[in-house]
Recover the amino acids of this structure.
């Protein structure tokens, strides 16, 4: 396509076919097409401020644009803007900005429904909740957190550790957060790595898990047995928040622990109107790429916390509602299909960053998604993103990444001919003549498309 060739794309995999539609067909068909932003976007100072900033406006010139739409700041002294020569920018926008607008529409409604499940503490937005699966010690019956490491942040200039000690009754542990953890002043790099490893070692090792209350070792077979019996639990260990000088770490409040558990009560209500309901299909059992079934996670719904399921169900609800609202705003069928398709991709990306197989990247202070590689491994200490936040892994970021791709694609495909993406192409005779046929090498069983 970049060479100006006429392209026909063929794929029998429905997921790959849909991705082809979004990467090749929609940008081609809607290139150079503009339409006014929807009224709800024009009435939002927050959204239009981001729109005009993207056009290069700032300061007083930005205020001129916002005032042209009647979006003055409330209860604030307005500066005198006389003498500023700034033309008013058109609000007719391309596909990328319409995807942003309708993603924003979905987000505002989901946020209203989910806000009470993601409380803000001390005015600092939550980035993520850190969890550890738990098992009952076979000797002392204490609740043991399954932690690979206790490092929360490990950088040269920032070192934060999750502390842990047995509680008074030795029935479990008490967590704490230690900032400014000192590093080994002298020694080789190998010695420093070993020092750090011992300093914040978790409870897990290759042999199994060591109980912090009685030092009994439970083997991996012990853990598997407990998992298949449904006796693994989970405990929130820490919360990552956006502070004044970057990410900060603190212990969860009682309210945060309670609302996380309360989400389960809402699941039946949110999924009753969603086709097929909760994702209770069976997870893969092929050990070469999936480890979750070995630990009793036999249904896809078990790969999510109740709050993650509630959040995903809420976003599904409003993503499905968009199509009818788009038609009420008189979008053509072509635009309805494209915008709703990209929002579906945003939902997919959110799900990828909202499972109990996600983990915390302590050196990068960011979320590692479910499919960081072509496998579905068990994760003992997992991370739960705040889905409605504007931080790493949330819905806002998912839509923004997709919109950026669309802008890039629209620039690339504004001139080449429109590609043909054919459905059911494996069962139909294509009466076409092709100069070149390019095939993707087969994956064989390296990627379990049939079960994913």
């Amino acid at each position: 396509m970049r060479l100006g060739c006429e392209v026909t794309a063929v794929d029998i995999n429905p997921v790959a076919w849909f991705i082809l539609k979004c990467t090749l067909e929609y940008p081609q068909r809607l290139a150079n097409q503009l339409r006014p932003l929807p009224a709800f976007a024009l009435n939002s100072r927050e959204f239009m401020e981001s729109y005009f900033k993207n056009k290069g406006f700032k300061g007083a010139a930005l205020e001129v644009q916002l005032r042209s739409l009647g979006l003055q700041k409330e209860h604030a002294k307005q500066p005198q803007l006389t003498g500023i020569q700034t033309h008013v920018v058109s609000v007719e926008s391309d596909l990328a900005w319409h995807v942003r607008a309708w993603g924003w529409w979905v987000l505002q409604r989901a946020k209203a429904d989910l806000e009470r499940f993601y409380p803000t503490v001390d005015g600092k937005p939550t980035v993520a909740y850190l969890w550890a699966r738990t098992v009952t010690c076979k000797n002392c019956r204490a609740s043991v957190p399954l932690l690979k490491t206790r490092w929360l942040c490990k950088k040269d200039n920032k070192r934060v550790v999750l502390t842990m000690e047995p509680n008074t009754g030795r029935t479990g542990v008490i967590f704490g957060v230690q900032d400014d953890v000192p590093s080994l002043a002298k020694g080789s790099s190998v010695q420093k790595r070993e020092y750090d490893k011992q300093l914040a070692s978790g409870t897990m090792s290759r042999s199994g898990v060591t109980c912090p209350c009685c030092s009994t070792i439970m083997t991996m077979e012990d853990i598997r047995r407990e998992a298949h019996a449904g006796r693994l639990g989970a405990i929130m260990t820490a919360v990552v928040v956006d502070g004044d000088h970057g990410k900060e770490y603190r212990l969860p409040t009682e309210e945060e622990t309670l609302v996380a558990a309360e989400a389960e009560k809402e699941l039946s209500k949110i999924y009753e109107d969603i086709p097929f309901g909760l994702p209770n299909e069976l997870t893969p059992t092929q050990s070469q790429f999936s480890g979750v079934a070995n630990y009793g996670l036999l249904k896809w719904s078990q790969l999510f916390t109740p709050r993650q399921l509630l959040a995903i169900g809420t976003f599904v609800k409003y993503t499905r509602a968009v199509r009818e609202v788009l038609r009420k705003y008189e979008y053509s069928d072509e635009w309805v299909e494209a915008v709703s398709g990209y929002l579906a991709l945003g939902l997919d990306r959110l799900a990828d960053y909202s499972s109990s197989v996600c983990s915390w990247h302590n050196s990068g202070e960011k979320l590692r998604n479910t499919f960081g590689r072509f496998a579905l491994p068990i994760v003992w200490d997992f991370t739960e993103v705040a889905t409605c936040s504007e931080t790493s892994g949330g819905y806002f970021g998912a839509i923004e990444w997709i919109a950026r791709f669309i802008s890039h694609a629209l620039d690339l495909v504004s001139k080449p001919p429109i590609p043909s993406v054919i459905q059911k192409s494996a069962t139909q005779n294509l009466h076409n003549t092709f100069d070149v046929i390019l095939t993707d090498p087969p994956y064989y069983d390296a990627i379990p498309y049939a079960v994913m």
About this structure: Residues 120-252 form one domain. The first strand starts at residue 8 and ends at 9. The longest helix spans residues 306-328. The CA atoms of residues 384 and 413 lie 37 Å apart.
